[in-house]
Amino acid sequence: MVETVISVRDLSKSFAGVKALDGVNLEIRAGEIHCLAGENGSGKSTLIKVISGVYQPDEGTIELNGTRHDKLTPIEAIRGGVQVIYQDFSIFPNLSVMENLALNHELSQGRKLVNWRRFRTIAKEAIAKINFHVDLDARVGDLSVADKQLVAISRALLHDTKLIIMDEPTTALTNREVEALFRVILDLKSRGIAILFVSHKLGEVFEISERFTIIRNGKLVVTSLPEELDHKKFAHYMTGREVDDVRFEQPETVGEPVLEVEGLGLEGALEDITFTLHAGEVLGITGLLGSGRTELALTLFGLFPTDSGKIRVKGRAVRLGGIRDAIANGIAYVPEDRLTEGLMLERSIADNIVVAELDEFTSPLGMMDSTRRQSEVDRWVADLKIATANAENPVNTLSGGNQQRVVLAKWLATNPDILILNGPTVGVDIGSKSDIHLILQDLARGGMGIIVISDDIPELLQTCRRILILDEGRVTAEVDPDTTTEQELSDLITGAITAGVGV
Amino acid sequence: MESTTLLSRPLALARRDPYVARLFVILVTLVAFFLIVRTDNFLSFGTWQSMGVQFPEFGLMALGVMITMITGGIDLSVVGIANMTSIAAASIMLSMVPPDASGGQATVGILVAVAVSLVTGALAGAFNGFLVSVVKIPAILVTLGTLELFTGIAIIITAGKPLSGLPALYGQTFGARLFGVVPVPLLIFVVVAIAMGVVMHKMSFGSKLYMLGTNATAARFSGLHSARLLIQTYTISGVCAAIAGLVLLANYNSAKADYGVAYTLLTVLIVVLGGVDPNGGKGKLLGVVLAIVILQILSSGLNMFPAISNFYRPLIYGGVLLVVISISEGKGRFWKRLNTRKKTKEEVVVS
Questions:
Q1: Cα–chain-centroid distance for residue A63?
Q2: Would residue A503 count as lying in a domain?
Q3: In whole angstroms, what separates CA A114 from the centre of its chain?
Q4: Residue A411 lies in a domain
Q5: Is the Cβ pair A398, B203 closer than 8 Å?
């Protein structure tokens, strides 16, 4: 008989009338590695927060170590041995490793005075538990992402921990770091600690989990063993549709080069990047986090002055000294982080659509032509099917997919020749995702040159005519999506194979 | 039937902006209270006229602080700019207009003095804007520093003494009443406020300021020229302060380095009370104008109670401001939560 750490039954939780969780059951056994998978917005985070006592469920019961709780508080969850490692790790970047490790422990013991010797003892004990070697006096903010994560894990182990919940722990890790993390997880398991591993990547579910649970739209879809899972089933469970990997029909011929990059270099980020983007083509750029993909996009958008190399737009050599130079040369950029770089969240949808072209509607005296502004707003709301009753509502009332359409509208309104999208469908629901893909296809047919930067492999294969792979700031391969499988592309990105496939 | 049409517009306005509506209610209540307890004083025309001469001093400064706060900054140097520019104006008048000067000579002297004061104010403001946007020092530190800097310049020029003996024409012009009713300082305030309204709500410049104040990163990523916008913003604030300085000069009939020192914090409090978000991006001119008037009426009202010594004034100011802000903020958040809840529901229905 295997002991159960936590089991939840018929859990429901609503926010403002929307059911985030709807009758979910989940059981985690001692020493088990359990994968929780689901798309963005499926209710994964809500479930974690209910298990750790942050949210109170509307209905359902939680049984922790055999004790039933109708309402679980965060303190009860921690006393019951539940620890959560969030994506931001909840660490204090300006404090040392030692302080980060010992502080919570000391506070929970109600100590008011700092005893540095005790701090050091506690911290040493914590890192020893997972054989983690780190300078205890280093500032945590200076550590790599993987080391920050290990600090968070060590800290979680200071309590009498029975279950560690990891919220998408591999998102910002390189391949080697992921392997190291998996070894730590297996070590924890061998000591009887259960892991709830939240992920939306099939590969991870296969590799690490003993059982998995998939939720969608707040409902439990399936709890099963990874042996019974294949790619098609996984996609079906996650999205609820038969996913047809229909590739876009790529044009036989493409137009003139709109963007030529030659020998581009940027200190510490990019080296000797050379490629050409043609009118009417969707070019994919991918690579791991830190491979230089975002730096490349920002360089082309004028944010970083280049150290070496040439950039030609429509055959003309240009110097991109700033964002305004890039815009003047017909380059538009849909940023990676929509919320901080793309939108003024509290301003209206209309304001956000017209912000980049305000000067177009301005008389020589600086007055705004509100009639023209309105017709421009109406046009884009209709063209991109932005779902809103009133474009004067703040943009933060929209869903992720509609917000992304607003960012797209802002740039399409400037009538660019080159559109660079960094993570075009991150945090966007599936319906909007395929709509955005269709919009991109239409734009390419209309003669725009489009660069899609993404780590979403199916998305790249589906939308792009060619894909460049970056690693450590260099282009390591160029692949033809027609002759490349998802597995091959994935291996190329992670460096599992280095030779060019289908070049 | 007629009453509904009469009320429908104000009511619609109130629904759209409950905060401004609440300030209006506070204003009406305050006036009603003083009308009841000090009927004679508050029915007298002179009371209202003297208020119209006084509040433009800090009202004009507050308009400048407002526009900087909408970009997410602040301008604490307005009093310093006002004194420095009014001293510059006074020095020019004293040297260009001798006591026996003709009317024409006096007019020229005054016009030159006014022009120099406005230009000096603009330059001082642009200097603030340069430090905020190009050198990238937080606005609160920049303007705290330049407040001392400008005041210091003013002290050195005057050796700390008041400059008086201005041409009589200057005082007469500012002391005049338009149509025998409207004091000139009030007229100046109204003109500047209307101009500010046009800048903020009719020009694309104003639209850009709100965008910049809401999210400076996204504004930059959208191609807005944030450094230029900020320099322009602080320049406008400097000009407003210089105009306030000209009013101060007329009201005191002299210039000195430490006139109106209490206005520094008063203007900030007025702007916050007027509903401008210190984090930037939110706030309306109408709210700030109402807050200016409320403060003036409160001040004049208190003057009519001889039993309340002037020592109590800061205490009453501070208390009233804190109470009003906490009530409004509390309710504001309550209203906002109610509104967003309604909107998310609508949005769900739409999608």
A1: 32
A2: no
A3: 38
A4: no
A5: no
- What is the nearest CA distance from A253 to chain B, expressed in angstroms? 33
Using CA atoms, how far apart are residues B267 and B132, in angstroms rounded to an integer?
A: 20
B188 within 8 A of B60, measured Cβ to Cβ: yes
Same domain (yes/no): A154, A170: no
Residue in this structure with the two tokens 């917000």, named with its chain if needed: A403
Q: Do residue A151 and residue A177 come from a single domain?
A: no
Stretch A349-364: mean pLDDT: 91
* A312 and A421 fall within a common domain: yes
A457 lies in some domain: yes
Q: Identify the CA nearest to A185 among candidates A172, A173, A197, A174.
A: A197
Same domain, A205 and A111: no
**Does B68 have pLDDT greater than 70?**
yes
Which residue in the block uniquely carries the two structure tokens 């009093």? B79
What is the C-alpha separation between A483 and A31, in angstroms, rounded? 43
Residue B60 near residue B243, CB atoms below 8 Å: yes
Domain annotation covers residue A381: no
Separation CA B147–CA B81 (nearest Å):
7
Residue of A nearest to B217 (CA): A341
* Residue A344 to residue B219, Cβ atoms within 8 A: yes
| CATH number of the B53-327 domain | 1.10.3470
Residues near B103 by beta carbon (within 8 Å), at least 6 away in sequence? B169
Q: What are phi and psi of B234, to 5 degrees?
A: -70, -30
Angle (deg, nearest 10), helices B139-158 and B103-133: 150
Partners of residue B339 in chain A, C-beta under 8 Å: none
pLDDT at A501 > cutoff 80: no
The verdict on A426 and A320 lying in the same domain is yes
pTM for this model (two decimals):
0.77
* Contact assignment for B221 to A368 by CB distance below 8 Å: no
DSSP code at position B156: H
Q: CATH number of the domain at A228, please.
A: 3.40.50.300
CB A69 within 8 A of CB A61: yes
Q: How far apart are the first and last CA of chain A?
A: 55
Give A366's contacts in chain B (Cβ within 8 Å): 203-205
Residue B64 half-sphere exposure, CB side, CA atoms within 13 Å?
A: 37
Q: Is the same domain home to A46 and A195?
A: yes
What ipTM describes this predicted complex?
0.81
pLDDT at B120: 97
* CA–CA dist A24, A45 (Å, integer): 13
Interatomic CA distance for residues B68 and B209, integer angstroms: 9
**Domains in chain A: how many in total?**
3
Q: Cβ–Cβ of A389/B218 closer than 8 Å?
A: no
In a shared domain, residues A231 and A318: no
Residues of A with Cβ-Cβ distance to B347 under 8 angstroms: 387-388, 397-399
Chain B: closest CA distance from residue A286 (Å): 22
Last residue of a domain, one of A159, A174, A189: A159
Comparing A501 with B6, the larger pLDDT belongs to B6
- Which chain B residues touch A359 with a CB distance below 8 Å? 204
Range of the domain at A329: 257-340+416-494
Say how many C-beta atoms besides its own lie within 10 A of residue A268's C-beta: 10
**Whether B218 and A344 lie within 8 Å, measured CB to CB:** yes
pLDDT of B136-168, one tens digit each?
Answer: 999 999 999 999 999 999 999 999 899 988 998
Q: Where are the strands (E) in chain B, listed by range?
A: 177-178, 182-183
User: In chain A, whose CA is at the least distance from the CA of B218?
Assistant: A341
What angle, rounded to 10 degrees, do the helices at B263-273 and B78-96 form?
Answer: 130
> Tokens 């401004």 map to which residue?
B20
Same domain, A299 and A201: no
